[in-house]
Amino acid sequence: MNISSALFLLVGSFLCISGGVGILRFPDFYTRMHAVGVTETLATAMILIGLMLQNPDGIVVLKLIIILLMTLFISPTASHALAKAAMHNELKPKLDQPEDNEKVKSSNP
Amino acid sequence: MLIAATIAILVVMIMAITRGIVGPTLYDRILAVNMFGTKTVLLISILGFVMGRPEFLDIAIVYALINFVSVIAVLRHSDASIFKTPQSVEKETEKNS
Lengths: 109, 97
Hints:
The complex is a heterodimer. Chain A is built from four helices and no strands. Chain A is an all-alpha fold. Chain A has one domain. Chain A is elongated. In chain A, 34% of the residues are buried. Chain B is an all-alpha fold. In chain B, helix 2 (26-51) runs antiparallel to helix 3 (56-75).
């Protein structure tokens, strides 16, 4: 029981740290949002499942399940709303440099 | 292992705060605040187990709801002009360069 809990907590911590590295090092808003939005849901689920395996009491597991369900609904909704607002206000994604040059060349003649 | 997870989440919160301070656009800051709030929910849950008081989970539930409402409430005003000023500044710099 304890080993499986430690395993879940370890995987959740690794996913959290990968999301943090992604939000620091990616070059663009949309890529940063990809890194955060993908890792956030799975990392939260992993850590909460690890906590559920830690203490098998009735009401505590029920509260953890409530937090898990709320996070699974809330996090993609917030990411979707943020991406829609950014697209609506015409925040451009950062494109590759060669592709940009080709576009300029093809649009010039 | 609970202590290790706590330290990892604290490190990730510092990373999110760094992006919130540095972030070039307004959306980066909103994203960083959203990530910070989610990690705060996790931190409160884990700290309850570390201290042996799982009653902290009630506070974690309330914090998750507050986090969602705050992000949606800020994005409700996304038609305002302050959401568009960084973009126009970027466009001008692109035209100049």
